[in-house]
Design brief:
The complex is a heterodimer.
Chain A (H helix, E strand, L loop, with lengths): L2 H32 L7 E5 L3 H7 L4 H22 L3 E8 L7 H17 L6 H5 L1 E6 L7 H13 L6 E9 L1 H23 L10 H10 L16 E4 L18 E3 L10 H24 L1
Parallel strand pairs in A: 1-2, 1-5, 2-4, 3-4, 5-6
Helix pairs in contact in A: 2-3, 3-4, 4-6
Chain B lengths: L1 H21 L9 H14 L25 E5 L3 H8 L3 H21 L4 E8 L7 H17 L1 H6 L2 E6 L7 H14 L5 E9 L1 H17 L10 H7 L12 E4 L18 E4 L9 H13 L9
Helix pairs in contact in B: 3-4, 4-5, 5-7, 8-9
């Protein structure tokens, strides 16, 4: 009689392991079918709906973000299994600093915990050989989070299989402003180096214009380490960009599944990719026309 | 038994018939959101005593005056598919599209929207067939020239934004003529994006800033979002950032239209082709916009 609960637990564990293996096998079959068509090279996610999820389930505020993190890990696993090389996520916007201080603090604590966990041996970073970039105005973060982010970036700098770009303290308009500032500094640096003898009045207009042409805004953007996203997925049904990758998503397929971010699953990813494949030949034709 | 079956069948058919009147055509799966929307609208219509009629736009019970967007942008997609479906030429599709734009903007201004901007011709469109491009250019010129008096009568300011270096001289002259003729009007503004690309707009603004910085007119520290916004081509309007962007024909992409300006814009992708995007569809889109919760990154 005393053995029964133990036996039941073992049987339960065995069944769940079997179910996991069946799900994994079915998932790999679905991915093989999807791979018959063109696959996106770069996927971007706006992880919206964590707070609404917590409210819906009657959980305390921070639990929504924790559930969101689990959903993120699953989504990353699916993307890298499918063979998508670049994944970008909108983790924290500069606008989010305007939320309640307690919420911002708890988000920063959660991010510090999760950033540090990326360096653990069992983490997804080591499993898939991910190179991690933290994109954004990192000076706005507290010292601990910034130091942790820089540590992860240095530790994964040699990985080259797949790339994860985490947008933190990020706004697309801020990214463009920083790129312009960098271009201004470079242009004035070039000017000082090249024209010590003649003044600006002595230089002809053509030479001036040519030097400005060389200053490429795009090269100075932080997101230049990755190609433009093929698909942008925003969860929770809202259809707006919220100042995310405005420059880069000009020709991206936009998807807005109604599911809140912690509820996002494989079926939403598959649907987004099928839509991408449907439009792929038309978009390729247009690119060739240019 | 028979009477129970017949009552169930009657109820079922009653449900189907009411759905038939709610949806514009009989389709499976029957649209539950539309059914709920119909019930909500019908219930609210009976409640006349409690509604403050001044809150709503004249003639439109679904649209609240205060929540109307100030700037609506539209990507007019679907002219060629519309023409193909109707068995017409592509040029006739574009003509129907131009006519629809005039009606659309007139309707928007009547509903209290201040600025309407339309993506008439993208930089990428130069890659289309030469004949189609030529036809589009002459269509735009014809419409602008013939509508100068109309815009003056309606006191609507017309602006054209874009690269404009490749367009025919005659069209450029017409654009200058219409901009000059309507520049003094302030309450209604129609912006046409011709040979426009969002990236070109941003690069142009950034180059202008870099040049000014080289000449010592501004310092690097002065460069901020407001400065870049002032340098963009949408600086011709009081409301450069659209509150709402509508793209027709079901495609869900921005296609290099406004990029910077769409940071917080609500996007609506309608499956309807542009020449079919009539008043009902516009009101539906505006009602959907008014139901949205705009948070701008924070909790409201």
């Amino acid at each position: 009689m005393a053995e029964r609960p133990g036996q039941l637990r073992r049987i339960g564990g065995g069944i769940s392991q079997l179910l996991e293996k069946i799900c994994g096998f079915s998932r790999r079959c679905v991915f093989r079918v999807l791979s018959m068509g063109p696959l996106p090279n770069h996927l971007a996610f706006i992880m919206d709906g964590n707070r609404r999820y917590a409210k819906k389930r009657g959980l305390e505020d921070g639990s929504g973000h924790k559930a969101g993190f689990s959903a993120l890990m699953s989504m990353l696993q699916y993307c890298y299994e499918l063979g998508i090389k670049y994944v970008t996520i909108y983790a924290f916007s500069i606008d989010n600093f305007r939320r309640k201080p307690e919420e911002v603090e708890s988000l920063m604590d959660l991010m510090l915990e999760k950033i540090n966990s990326l360096l653990e041996k069992e983490s997804i970073v080591h499993q898939y050989g991910i190179r991690v970039y933290f994109i954004g105005n990192l000076a706005l973060l507290n010292d601990q989070v910034r130091a942790a982010a820089e540590k992860v970036m240095n530790a994964t700098a040699k990985n080259s299989r797949v790339v994860l770009l985490v947008c933190i303290a990020y706004n697309s308009t801020d990214e463009i402003v920083q790129a312009v500032k960098k271009s201004c500094i470079e242009a004035s640096g070039n000017y000082k180096h090249g024209d010590t003898e003649s003044g600006i009045e002595g230089m002809d207009m053509e030479k001036q214009e040519k030097r400005i042409q060389l200053v490429e805004i795009e090269e100075n953007m932080q997101m230049s380490v990755a190609p433009d996203p093929d698909i942008l997925i925003r969860s929770s049904g809202e259809t707006r960009l919220s100042n995310f990758l405005l420059w880069q998503t000009g020709n991206s397929q936009l998807c807005s599944p109604a599911a809140l971010w912690p509820e996002i699953g494989l079926r939403h990813l598959v649907w987004a990719i099928l839509n991408f494949q449907r439009n792929y030949s038309y978009l390729e034709k247009r690119k060739k026309q240019l | 038994m028979l009477s129970l079956l017949s009552s169930l069948l009657c109820l079922f058919f009653l449900f189907l018939i009411s759905c038939f009147f709610i949806t514009s055509h009989f389709c499976f799966p029957l649209s539950l959101p539309k059914l709920l929307g119909f019930i909500k609208i019908t219930a609210s219509r009976d409640d006349d005593n409690k509604r403050d009629k001044g809150t709503y736009v004249d003639g439109e019970d679904e649209l609240q005056r205060e929540m109307m967007p100030r700037h609506v942008a539209v990507i007019m997609d679907g002219n060629r598919r519309w023409a193909k479906q109707a068995g017409l030429l592509t040029s006739q599709g574009h003509e129907a599209g131009a006519k629809r734009l005039i009606e659309f903007s007139e309707l928007c201004f009547k509903l209290g929207i201040h600025t309407v901007s339309a993506f008439a011709f993208s930089t990428e469109n130069w890659g289309r067939h030469k004949i189609e491009v030529k036809c589009l250019m002459s269509l735009i010129q014809h419409y602008l020239k013939s509508k100068i008096k109309y815009f003056q009568r309606e006191e609507t300011r017309v602006s054209v934004i874009g690269n404009l270096t490749k367009i025919p001289e005659s069209l450029l002259r017409t654009i200058q003529e219409i901009e000059e003729a309507t520049k003094s009007y302030k309450n209604k503004h129609l912006i046409l994006a011709i040979d426009y690309s969002g990236r070109f707009d941003i690069v142009r603004a950034c180059k202008s800033i870099v040049k000014k910085s080289e000449k010592g007119l501004i310092r690097e520290d002065d460069v901020d979002e407001a400065l870049i916004e002032r340098e963009l081509l949408t600086n011709c309007t009081e409301f450069p950032s659209p509150d709402l962007l509508i793209r027709t024909s079901g495609e869900e992409r921005i296609s290099n239209f406004f990029l910077w300006q769409l940071a917080y814009t609500e996007l609506i992708f309608s499956p309807v082709l542009w020449p079919d995007f009539d008043k009902d569809k516009l009101v539906e889109a505006l009602a959907s916009y008014q139901r949205r919760e705009r948070r701008f990154g924070c909790r409201l």
